[in-house]
């Protein structure tokens, strides 16, 4: 059997492949099923697949007496010089999930049995004359400036445009494939020799809304990339809904975190000389009416990446959701104007309304339901099993004050750190969504601070004091 010729993967294709995996799966390197996923493993796997005529390999070899049909495991063993049998199915799953490859069935010509395999998508293949050409979406030509937008999204100028096969967009007529940005979620559908922008989810810059439903040729989208680079060479379109402020050691009159959406914040009590100070040991001092409280920062471990448009995963039907009293004002309109939506799943319906810029989708979600969320838990187990006072304080802003009468782990790990799709809606948990979105946006800095107290009466009194003093939203002690 002829030995495969492994062509080194071009640097640009390798970099884009690693960036796509980092954005869609997790930041490289990371561990999955006890296998360390590195940039080298990604590149070698792609080289093994690209070396085959059909860009396809079975995951494991099929052996018959003395004849062995090599699989991805054997190719990785040969390239690394060690046993990589456990790595093959794991890296295959990651390449498929990231949109670089697809599952395949490989037929053993001798036994006519089917074996699980993996096929490298045409957009991510290369040949001896490719050089450092960027991958394209299958229908594009073999390079040139007209395909630059596939390597840099014209909407966010950050993500990579890749081809998605075997899926369809809700509310859009079926197509053989569509193009998807790995960063902002912009989606394009092919129409003859053009591409139509049908979604610009999570983009804060309203100027790009003028291109929604625009149908342009590849060279026109590429021209937008070039024009944007010329117009704004040193900036990037903002995708965060929070304004960053320089960190200060002493802040007077803290105010709640501002978001770009017009949400009325809790009002600061006038005339109160409030000063929050950071000490050398990392503690935060908060002056109360009777005494000064000392808060310690919470170290969090994030369990997975940021989840965008979490609300789209709600599995209950629209009819089931409308049974909740909070939807009493919108129920008559839906029953009359959108009767076809009632038996459908709530998540995809809300997503379709959002893509159409239909303001009705705001009637379903709470004020923070379409933010970006993360999953996190407390790092310190001893601290997690205490109770007391909790504040959310970040970038010099006081956002939230709460009392915890059970374990901190119950409030932080299971409430704030574990947002579900249904919690994003009006009948969900708006406070948990708000806190989670703030923690996710500022995950690199301390956000949650704790003051341990064992007396429940003292906890309620401290919450009442701080809310009355700083936020003017007191809760009567229980």
How does this structure look, described?
- The protein is an alpha+beta fold.
- It folds into 4 domains: 11-124, Orthogonal Bundle (Arc Repressor Mutant, subunit A); 145-231, no CATH class; 250-304 and 372-471, no CATH class; 309-364, no CATH class.
- 28% of the residues lie in helices and 22% in strands.
- It has 14 helices and 21 strands.
- The protein has a 7-stranded antiparallel beta sheet with strand order 13-14-15-16-21-19-20, covered by helices on one side. Strands 8-9-10-11-12 form a 5-stranded antiparallel beta sheet.
- Strand 4 (62-64) and strand 5 (67-69) form a beta hairpin.
- It starts with 10 loop residues before the first helix and ends in a 7-residue tail after the last helix.
- The model is unreliable at 136-146, 232-274 and 474-478 (pLDDT under 50).
Give a topology summary.
Blueprint: H1 11-24, E1 30-32, E2 35-37, H2 39-50, E3 56-58, E4 62-64, E5 67-69, H3 72-80, H4 87-97, E6 101-107, E7 114-120, H5 148-151, E8 161-165, E9 177-181, E10 187-191, E11 194-199, E12 215-217, H6 218-231, E13 250-252, E14 275-278, E15 284-287, E16 292-297, E17 300-307, H7 318-322, H8 331-337, H9 346-355, H10 360-364, E18 373-378, H11 381-384, E19 388-394, E20 397-404, H12 408-416, H13 430-441, E21 448-452, H14 456-471
Antiparallel strand pairs: 1-2, 3-7, 4-5, 6-7, 8-9, 9-10, 10-11, 11-12, 13-14, 14-15, 15-16, 16-21, 17-18, 19-20, 19-21
